[in-house]
Structure formats: C-alpha cells, structure tokens
Specification:
By secondary structure, the chain is an alpha/beta fold. Helix content is 36%, strand content 13%. The chain has an eight-stranded parallel beta sheet. This is NADP-dependent oxidoreductase domain-containing protein.
Length: 360
C-alpha cells in the first residue's frame, strides 16, 4: 500500500480507500456484518487505513458495522470518513445541512461508529435551502469541540466548490480539505471545473465509482444484454428506470462505439502490464496528480483483492496514460474549448494550469 497526504494537510491516507456502501442488510442486497468484517480485516491486513461511509448507507447500518469492527482495533491506526445531509428520519428537520440536523447527525454517527471523533466529516451534497455559512459554522463548532478532525465536501459543481473555498479563506471556518466526486474514464467532465479548483486550491480529490458501476471491468460484451444476476448493470439492464450514476443504463453504452474502443484499449494495456482491466481503470486515477486516494467498493474478498492490486508496485507508462486519456476524452464544450485553444501556447511554468497539460 502507498500513502499520500490528503490535500494540503498533514494527514496521510492509503491510496485505496474502502467504501462501505456495500455494508448493510442482506435483505437489501448488501453484505452482512460477518462478511463486512472479513473485508475490513483483509483491507487492514493489506495496509489500508482509510474507510469511507455515510449515515445514509442503509440508514446507519454501514456505520454500525464499521463501529463494531473499529471497537476491536487501535483507533489511531485508521482514518474514518462519513457524511451528512440525507434524510435520516420522519421529522421535518431530519434532512439537509441546517445546524440542527448536522449536530444531531454527528452525534448519531459517533455513537454508531463507537468513536469519540470523526477524521473526515463531509457534506454529502449541496443543500439549496441552507446557506453555506450556516453549515460551515456548524462544522467549525464540531471541529472546535474535538468531534471532527477535518471537513470535506461531496458532489458539488464548480461554482459551489469555489464559493465554499473562498468563504473558508478569511479564517472564520476551517478549510475544506477534500472533494469526493464521481471521476472515472467514463466521467471526466469534473476536469473542466471541480478538479481545477482542487488543483489550484490544494484540495485532494477522492474519486467514487472508479469502475462506473461495472462498466469499466471489461466483463460485459457488445450486443449481449447482461442478465439480472450480472451485478448492478445487470439489474438496471432489465429495468432501465432504475438507472443511476453508479449503475448507468445498458442502452447508453451497448451501441456506443467509443465506449467499446475504450474497453478494447484497456484490455490491451492490461495484457501488456499483466494486470486486470479494473486495475488499469483504478491505476489511471491514481496517477492523476490531484488524487490522493480512490474509493473502491467490494462485495467479496476476491473483488477487494483485485481492486487493491492497483495500489502499488507498478505504473502505467506516459504513453499508456495518454492513450487512455485520448480514448476516454469527452467533448470539450464552450467555453472550455476556447480557453484551452487560445491558451495552448501560453505555458507559464510559474503559473501552471492544472489540465492544460496532464501530469502523471
């Protein structure tokens, strides 16, 4: 395992973060406590120290499972991240980023996690009903009380992220240290805005859904509709009304020539490196200079072992990174196309721009 600093903090995290959204009730298709603990044990044995959950994951069951495991560990060896915003009860204030909900949610998460502090407390998304000054103030007070060490954000757009960063610069609020965002070879539009903010402001990017719900595993074949038993993609393929970011519609990709060219290229690179296609997809993210850690999910020990194989001991070459960049390149809309085109020959080494030139 390799360890990186979380943004411009002194906190070091394993470059693979174990996402615990798969932990919960077997009736909901999740792992039970015993199997979840086996995955946590193996993750820790392989050197992983960074675990991400949320109060919304199976309505607190994920946090409870982690807490029962964490109580048997040396607490300081692990970096525990969780989130707040989602509906957690029937009351009118049991949702959002109002001070009341944040304070109550933090206390509930601490109890479920069986710990007296949370290493990284993240808002799970923007709240259109609550000004950021209110939730930043609540998070500040949790930090001051010693219940939270660092604060982060998830699923924000560019202007929202920059606004929060600017609010934190006057010293009234603790700084945001990380952005948890969907980012993968099939979702690169965060490079236009959010990741640029992170690069310029020193925030660490924590990509979620690095395999796009399974679409970047190489296990699906063109023209062969996945069966219901073939993971999230199979379930959604049978009923596309259930499509979501972590499980996109099969019809979106089945006749998408560019997608199949990408899968073919990933397969070729995987063969060259003696690795698997999922490992190539995760390694591509790990070599992006704004990414200290990639959040993986695991529904089995075998899946965990395979994904963890991306973490250390090998690298994609510059040519391989550029090939993957080119195969997965999204259309560059206005005004980004103009910005990049007219700035192509304006390379100032003392004022580097994050994504005009990729660094690996």
């Amino acid at each position: 395992m390799e360890y990186n600093y979380l943004g411009k903090t002194g906190l070091r995290v394993s470059n693979i973060c174990l996402g615990a959204m798969t932990f919960g009730s077997p009736q909901l298709g999740k792992l039970d406590k015993e199997d979840s603990h086996k995955i946590l044990d193996r993750f820790a044995a392989l050197g992983g120290n960074f675990i991400d959950t949320a109060n919304a994951y199976t309505k607190g069951v994920s946090e409870t499972i982690i807490g029962e495991w964490l109580a048997k560990q040396k607490r300081e060896d692990f970096v525990i991240a969780t989130k707040v915003r989602s509906q957690m009860g029937d009351g009118v204030n049991d949702i959002g980023l109002g001070r009341k909900h944040i304070m109550a949610s933090c206390e509930a998460s601490l109890k479920r996690l069986q710990t007296n502090y949370i290493d990284l407390y993240q808002i799970h998304g923007w709240d259109l009903a609550t000004p950021p000054e209110e939730w930043l103030g609540a998070l500040r007070d949790l930090v001051s009380a010693g219940k939270v060490r660092y604060i982060g954000v998830c699923n924000l757009c560019g202007w929202q992220l920059q606004k929060v960063v600017e609010l934190c610069k006057n010293g009234e609020y603790p700084p945001i240290v990380s952005l948890q965002q969907q980012y993968n070879l099939l979702c690169r539009h965060p490079e236009f805005e959010e990741l640029q903010v992170c690069k310029m402001e020193g925030l660490g990017v924590l990509p979620w859904s690095p395999l796009k719900g399974g679409m970047l595993t190489g296990k699906y074949k063109r023209g062969q509709k996945p069966q219901h038993t073939a993971g999230r993609i199979g379930i959604v393929a049978q009923d596309e009304s259930k499509a979501m970011q972590i499980a996109p519609a099969w019809s979106q990709y089945d006749n998408n020539t560019e997608y199949w060219k990408l899968v073919e290229g990933m397969g070729r690179i995987a063969k060259e490196k003696g690795k698997t296609i999922p490992q190539v997809a995760i390694r591509w993210l790990l070599q992006k200079d704004v990414v200290p850690s990639v959040i993986i999910g695991a529904s089995s020990l075998q899946q965990l072992e395979d994904n963890m194989g991306a973490s250390h001991g090998w690298r994609l070459s510059k040519d391989q990174m550029e090939e993957l960049d080119n195969l997965s390149q999204t259309d560059i809309p206005y005004p980004y196309e103009v910005i990049l085109r007219i700035g192509a020959d304006r390379d100032n080494p003392f004022y580097p721009q994050p994504f005009v030139k990729n660094t690996y």
